[in-house]
Amino acid sequence: MECRFAWDEGRYPTMSPLKDIVSNIHGLVAKIEDDMKVRASEYNTVRSQLNAINRKQTGSLAVRDLSDMVKEEDIITTEHLETLLAVVPKYSQKDWLSSYETLTQYVVPRSSKKLHEDNEYALYTVTLFKKMADNFKVAAREKGFQASDSFSFALPPFRLCMREFEHSAEVQDTRKQELQKLVQDQDAMRSSLLQWCYSSYGELA
């Protein structure tokens, strides 16, 4: 279907001075551009938030959300005991298992359990007295694990990554609801933005 140009006589009367017509057109274009910037910024903000959540769900154990990997029974929290989570490079797991009990005092022997493993890291628990938790975290972060391959080629040292985690069904439900809302907001804003573009830029055609 052929689309023919038609001058909007009602908005831009041909009897008006040319400078007034040009000024009106420039004003309309500027307003549309300003509106576009605001709408695009709002959409990109929601999209960035959603991408950040998705990265946490699909990234390595060092950064991803752990709520779907750690069960309530994996965590011990009493008046005196606390369970911490350690992200250990895969090739340093033997070093971790042989040394975690000596990183500080009052670590529960044989308390470390592997919960999950990806291509780079393994997620372990460790239980100890609460009063030693901070000391353990410091010692764990300072602990360098030197790795080498079968040819004794020295690799750069890697450090333990201690992950902060608090198991809460309520928090997990809240996060799921937030994710669903962001997905819905993104879809609604994208649809609204496209409709606005068709309508607004159609006036300039």
Automatic annotation (TrEMBL):
GO terms for molecular function: proton-transporting ATPase activity, rotational mechanism. Transmembrane segments: none annotated. InterPro entries: ATPase_V1-cplx_csu (IPR004907), Vac_ATP_synth_c_sf (IPR036132). One of its GO terms (cellular component) is vacuolar proton-transporting V-type ATPase, V1 domain. Keywords: Hydrogen ion transport, Ion transport, Transport. SUPFAM superfamilies: Vacuolar ATP synthase subunit C. CDD domains: V-ATPase_C. Subunit of the V1 complex of vacuolar(H+)-ATPase (V-ATPase), a multisubunit enzyme composed of a peripheral complex (V1) that hydrolyzes ATP and a membrane integral complex (V0) that translocates protons. V-ATPase is responsible for acidifying and maintaining the pH of intracellular compartments and in some cell types, is targeted to the plasma membrane, where it is responsible for acidifying the extracellular environment. Subunit C is necessary for the assembly of the catalytic sector of the enzyme and is likely to have a specific function in its catalytic activity. V-ATPase is a heteromultimeric enzyme composed of a peripheral catalytic V1 complex (components A to H) attached to an integral membrane V0 proton pore complex. Belongs to the V-ATPase C subunit family. PANTHER family: V-TYPE PROTON ATPASE SUBUNIT C. This is V-type proton ATPase subunit C. It comes from Carex littledalei. The lineage of its organism: Eukaryota, Viridiplantae, Streptophyta, Embryophyta, Tracheophyta.
